[in-house]
Amino acid sequence: MSLINVLILVCVGAVLTGGDFAMKAWSNGQTSQISWYVFAILLYVVGLSAYGYILRSADFAAASYSILLFNMIFVALAGYLYFDDALSYYELAGIVLGITSVAMFTLSNE
Q1: Are 107 and 3 in contact, with CB atoms under 8 Å apart?
Q2: Rounded Cα gap, residues 110 and 99, in angstroms
Q3: CA quadruple 101, 105, 106, 110: dihedral positive or negative?
Q4: Do the Cβ atoms of 102 and 94 come closer than 8 Å?
Q5: Residue 16 in 3-state DSSP?
Q6: What is the distance between the alpha carbons of residues 58 and 33, in angstroms, rounded to a whole number?
Q7: Alpha helix (H) ranges present in the chain?
Q8: Taking Cα atoms as reference points, which of 65, 78, 93 lies closest to residue 9?
Q9: Which residue among 17, 18, 68, 90 is least packed, with the fewest CB closer than 10 Å?
Q10: What is the pLDDT of residues 57-69, one digit of tens each?
Q11: Mean pLDDT for the stretch of residues 39-49
């Protein structure tokens, strides 16, 4: 998987995280507007369309794992910043190991 594909997957992870937060706001009743639901669906469609584009040139396993990892990192970061969720040392170690594995996937295919 090329570096540009990894960068696109980072962006896709951020877009999907935005969709997660919009869906969370809508489903918790923080807002009763259907516009949050539609916004979340649009973010998911944009993110998954970019993911589909990446699958045309990247290994399926590496791309699938990478998008999940980046989404998890962004959700953990947003939870820490916006909801004061603390990350344990095990969770931080898991994130570091995940980033290492994406690097290994990327380097192994070059």
Answers
A1: no
A2: 17
A3: positive
A4: no
A5: helix
A6: 38
A7: 3-27, 34-55, 60-83, 89-108
A8: 65
A9: 90
A10: 888 878 888 888 8
A11: 94
Q: 78 Cβ partners below 8 Å, 6+ apart? A: 17, 21
Nearest to 67 by CA among 9, 16, 19, 20: 9
Q: Cα separations (Å) of 12 from 21, 25, 50, 84, 87?
A: 14, 20, 7, 24, 23
Report how far residue 27's alpha carbon sits from residue 24's, in angstroms, rounded to the nearest whole number.
5
Question: Tokens 């539609």 sit at which residue?
Answer: 38
What is the residue extent of each domain of the chain? 3-108
Q: Where residue 110 falls among pLDDT bands split at 50, 70, 90?
A: low
Q: What are phi and psi of 56, to 5 degrees?
A: -65, -25
Q: Extract the tokens encoding 100.
A: 């290492």
Q: How far apart are CA 98 and CA 37, in angstroms?
A: 30
Separation of alpha carbons 25 and 32, rounded Å? 9
Structure token pair of residue 61: 């396993």
60 CB-contact burial (10 Å; exposed 0-12 / middle 13-18 / buried 19+): exposed
